[in-house]
Queue: 4 jobs
Job 1
Amino acid sequence: MTSRRSTAVCASTLAAALALGATACGGDPVTAAGGDGKALAGQTLTVAGVWSGAEQKNFQKVLDAFTAKTGAQTRFVSTGDNVSTVVGSKIEGGNAPDVVMVPQVGVLRQFAARKWLAPLPEKVEKSVDSNYAPVWKGYGSVDGTLYGLYFKASNKSTVWYSPDVLDQAGVQPPKTYDEMLAAARAVADSGTPAFAVAGEDGWTLTDWFENVYLSQAGPEKYDRLARHEIKWTDPSVVESLKTLSKLFSDDKLLAGGRNGALATDFPGSVEKVFGPKPEAGMVYEGDFVAGVAKDEFGRKIGEDAKFFPFPAVGGGKAPVVSGGDAAVVLKDGRNRKAADAFLEFLATPEAAAVWAAEGGFLSPNKALDTAAYGDPTLRATAESLVGAGDSVRFDMSDQAPAAFGGTKGAGEWKILQDFLRDPSDPAATAAELEAAAAKAFRTANQG
């Protein structure tokens, strides 16, 4: 097994190795387009994505590795959360990026419906067939054509906690949702609110719902609800909202109560657990919590910041919900050759290894040696994601039209914020969700 030290050395020298067409850390030859550092010299690739801060910085290292390998210069454009609007305006203005890192399945489908996307090269499709679980190809395809390569994924079924706080309360990481609520009450009774909930960011609330729903209702219903083949007024939805209300309705379990949760954004929720003055014992969100805890607050992942899998609800199985960013090629981009070469590069484990070493990143690519991850905890979250195979389910809100599942202050985000504010009537919330979903899907289908 590769040692942590050798993994770090391998990661730090990877970009240089790529430039020389060397072998990958595991000894396999680098095969992405070019390899002599000159194949695309003089060309510039423009890549757009939502990332900023540490994520943008880490993705830039991937872009730099591509430059070292091919000679192509790169330019990253941050779109913010409204990817569809920003990319649409750039296309209309004749300034389309070559590649877009799309964070939502629904947006990818929207782009394809508008005829903005080029099918991915055959070489990329072969890599996906060989090295990805079939579910990932399905999420990247529209009507049987592969348009999106999932480069970055996340395990959104992780609950992060302070070992000191749980030890003080005398509780162990729970295996079921009811055990988690019992542990939360014990933590609260010990003097620390149990959960920091990032209610100011509506997307975190959709993630809470999706984990409960996948476990409680099962994958078949999850898929049907994601496609709006069953209504949000279905009894299974109401039941999951009731389950979620057991947490949301108990103010003593939430840092700052419901009002405090609604005033807390995602980084703030991590700070409440792992910051200099802890205000809660646990925070639910994806594996990317580790990056914030480590980079912003100096926590040692696996020591003073740990996680347990989102627990099973009722008689269901423990859920594995994922999100991710798919690379797509725009037809109107100015540099198709560089774009195709970049997608070929992203499909390799070498590209994934660059970011894996930095943290805050998981790859659904089975060919990536998990030794590339910088610490055992991230390795465990990656192994859980890849090991789930076809049972992984993509974030449901990210599969929906953006008007329902991906718009700040509207649709599912806003309705679940209202539910957090007052979780007393799950049936009424389900009716609101159905009205918003029906409108958004109807508009999307017409478009």
Job 2
Amino acid sequence: MTKITIISGSNRAQATTTQLCSYLQQVLESKGCLVTLLDLYVMPLPLYSPDVVCEDANLAILRNSLNEADGIILATPEYHGAPSGVLKNALDFVGSAQFSGKVVLSVSSTGGPVGVSSLQQLQTIVRSVHGINCPEWISIGGENRTFTPEGEPVNEKLRERALHTLQYFVKMVEAFSPEL
């Protein structure tokens, strides 16, 4: 069974980033994947410092989930043309031990039309920790950040885009994971 870890890097209640992550989780689970969704709003991490050895319980959950994952989805709101500080802080606690050789899908939610800057920066981080960037990505913006009470995006084209991207992502994960 394909194991996917999704990290929602928003630090806000009812964040559209997390709503999108929940939708992606539903779709992946319907396709037979085992999905762990880590919401950094409800699972806060301490501030990273390379000078401090951190034994935080939430950090242990993050590392273990990433270690066990065959594929990873990183999701962020876009703040000032960059990923959230909350997600960057989480990524500072991990590295190539968790990402090396794993396919990573980058996802963003932004108040503007599309969050390209944050997605490009996430892909740079993924390369730096020896992950494999999925060439597809998902970015929602403006009025496309609306979800039904059941958790699906209201915009049909966004749903189609998400389904296409997730199908591509899972095929990549299966192709690159030696245990699948």
Job 3
Amino acid sequence: MRTQHGTGHTKRTAARVWAALAAAGALALTACGGGGGDGGGTGGSTPSGQQGAHTVELPKLTGEKLEVAAVWTGPEQANFTKVLKEFEKRTGASVTFVPAQDPIVTFLGTKVAGGQPPDVALLPQVGALTAAVRNKWAQPAGPEARAQLEKNYAPGWRKLGAVDGTQYGVYYKAANKSLVWYNAKAFEAAGVKPPATWKDFLSVADTLSASGTAPVSVAGADGWTLTDWFENVYLSQAGPEQYDRLARHEIKWTDDSVKQALTTLGQLFARKDFLAGGPSGALATEFPKSVTQTFTGGDRPAAAMVFEGDFVAVNIAQTKAKVGEDALVFPFPAVGAKPPVVSGGDVAVALKPGRGAQALLTFLASADAAAVQAREGGFVSPNKAVDPAAYPNDIQRGIAKALIAAGDDFRFDMSDQAPAAFGGTPGTGEWKALQDFLANPSDVAGIQERLEAEAAKAFGN
């Protein structure tokens, strides 16, 4: 599953990306109580796609019924439903959200076999898009959707939605997966500052633990979060070229570079006092709880930090904490010479022919759709036409600007590039192997052997 995006992961661009994010963080720190930190408002201007400022024309679809499938739940699903409501209002169509299960390829396969595929699906892995095309489920994007992509997206994001040169997908939602969110009160109580390097990260964790607060909340029950931990360490330590080779399984998981990354990650996982609830507690913690337990309890939360993407803001919103005041963010610490920049995303693809599916694909490629969800928080779009004012606070705006500034200079989530059997299935493949590693971080060699065996089987080599 070769990722088709730019390969120039330069220090200059990485510095520009994180400078934008750092600026956003600095604004948030100094603007407590101001418009940028309260989770509401748009900075005074009208977001694209709001109050009639439409950027795309849509056909009338009165009476047409559509289904959209995605693995989103909770507030993420609720916020996306608002996007679908806007599409309904503008076209007259009726759209039903269909909750999907991981792995989504299996879910869709069942729907297709039963003759009832959804009109559009949002796929969380590049490998899932490739599988949908190979299985002849997917419909190529129509001219209207392609026109929106040409106008609004950098080439790298367009290529990620293409298979064998044909455009199928629209990357509606992106993610900056190289962020660490922290409880400002817990940091202040322990007298620590956001670290820039892995060495400093472990030192901060030591101080937090000594102060009586577990440093990190790890969502070990959800194996995908553990793949993100590994990928950030590996990209920073081994470098982008090795990252690309491992993503394509051109080097084995028994390679020494993997050993080094697992050993580094083990410095965190092996310290029971560093993890909220210890390893067993982490393995029982699902992603939403990993966030909410970090931002409840005042200056004595269950953990002071939680690692994950910009979408963490959606879960923070379920607590009393305010992004930009109580909940702040710093880039994933540099393990090697440079901090990592790992991105992910959800790609929309039409599974049925017809005007309705293509119209929805076109809408999702427009700034109009992205602006609706952007203002709800916990969402970042790779659509460069989205008005930054659509995002609800300075931190979200900074993350979005950094993503756009990166252009094609990023690395896409490694596990999402892999066949779903290896990188996207609960209870098996990389997800399960890294859960076992969290339980026993001393068994580096054994985990490497298992990872390689599973990868070889999934990649067919």
Job 4
Amino acid sequence: MNPDSTLSVIDQVFESITKSQESRLDLIIREKGNIRSVGEGIATVGGLPNVVTDELLKFEDGSLGLVYNLDEHEIGVILLDEEQHIDAGDEAFRTERVLGVPVGEALLGRVVDALGRPIDGKAAFRAATYLAVERESPPIMNRQSVDTPLQTGILTIDALLPIGRGQRELILGDRQTGKTAIAIDSIINQRDTDVISIYCAIGKQRAEVNRVVSDLQKNDAFENTIVLSASSSVPVGLQYIAPYAATTMGEYFMEQGRDALIIYDDLTWHARAYRELALLLRRPPGREAFPGDIFHIHARLLERSTHLKESGGSMTALPIIETQGQDIAAFIPTNLISITDGQIFLSPDLFQKDVLPAIDIGKSVSRVGGAAQLPAYRIASEELRLAYSQFEELEAFSRFSSRLDEDTLHRIERGRRIREVLSQDQFDTIDVVQQIALLIAVTNGLFDELDLSQIKPACRMMRNNIESELGNMSTKIKEGEKLEKNEEERVVNILRKLVDKKF
């Protein structure tokens, strides 16, 4: 054969191979393993030698799993979808990406699951971007002090336990003492502000979540709220990642320079979900069978809530914890108290006495305090707290003695009126000017001559008339300006005239 013709044939072969490769789509290299066992929300997978922790895996049926354990011969995976269609022997594929969720304006007014998928029966939405569920908390140098109040509309909290934008305030108490009610009222009070609210339900019954959504809709607070539901019926893996996903949704707005409020309801169930996963994955148990890093999973979650220096945005966290028998020294409550900037403790004893909200002021504290409180509150809040604390002690003491001096009787009667003023129904949020008026009235003894049965009508009358009576001073209070001494006296005189006129 002619050498030239041989070279020509070889050239033709190479040319045909090159054209064939160019005409085909690029090859996709996928690393795959096999499921060895599956059950109770977890799976073990063999193979995948290059997989990394927190990587997302995809199974044959399209469901997802999160890599958690990296052992020598197999990996432990947290299932993020139902396991009915996953069997031992099925293939598992690497995605080479971490778990992310959709964020942005499209989620407002929607109910989504822990993966950001809509579960409210409405049309699917198109999110602007996706962010990782696990993100680093902002460095200390990127944070600024908490100095702007987040008004909850609850008089006891705003006056005595003020919460600032960027703060982390724990709500804890026994079952059925009104913890969720405080959180929902706090969201409702943001309806006329620029604050974006996120309600994260962990381990709740679906009926409870539906009730929360209904309450928000009735009070016109749902359009600026995202509800993320990881109910008790979903895989435990979704319950575990739910608070991190909700935090990522809030961080998007915080990084845009906006203010967000996030409710974790509640982290007791989150801790139990993590304990269940850890035991199934055969991680060493510690105190109360919780794994050793139980503190870390909540610390890294709550440290992401802060007030940013560069953008000026903030994210305020109100985590909820359920106690047993008022034991705030238990393992999980102690952990959360040490992480957060204060706590609001709800007492079942007060709840049974129909003192609502059932906040035990003596066991509650806000470590930010007056730094995030409007100046007008300081006229009355310090004196109010002292008077109420003395009243609680004297009331307990008076049960053992029938003979009390005039000063003690006066303090007890004043305390009863303070308690009546602080009593507040759910959904009945009180704005700043009305709160200031009620505080000034009770601390200056304007209700001392009224019967206890007249306190509530007097408070309603005052709330209905105070803004029109104060005029420009109401604007001054809302804008955070300090009232001069003569203005304080004028407010007291206006309130006295209102009470004298009506009662």
